[in-house]
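User: Hey, quick favor. My workstation is busy. Could you predict this chain's structure for me?
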Amino acid sequence: MIEFNNRFGDPEAQSVLVRLDSDLLDIMQAVCDNRLAEQTIQWSDQRSVCVVCASEGYPGSYEKGKTIRGLDQVDEDVIVFHAGTSEKDGHIVTAGGRVLGITALGATHDDARAKAYANVKKISFDGMQYRRDIGEILR
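Assistant: No problem, here it is.
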């Protein structure tokens, strides 16, 4: 590993935290109280993949205010993290470069990846782009 940084708003955190079975607040409180060593942290055995839907032009300049369609079509067990969205006239619209993080769990890595991409395809907005190699394993 060359570099590892992880903030709560990053796709890396989104794919990790969905596997956390323990209460995150309890863990954070244990850190604050200097008793993390006493905390039991439980993780799911499931695998996870997060695919970012980004605005056209990201990471450079991009337009905002594009209506996002299909959010109501996403599977109930898939988590959609809103990173760059806003509400306008009763619709969810783009408001940033990284717009959504579509995060899925599966029994295997391939299952999680397939579920994430299947749900990405249910969502659309003008100029939506996403990488198609996320979670790809070289064999």
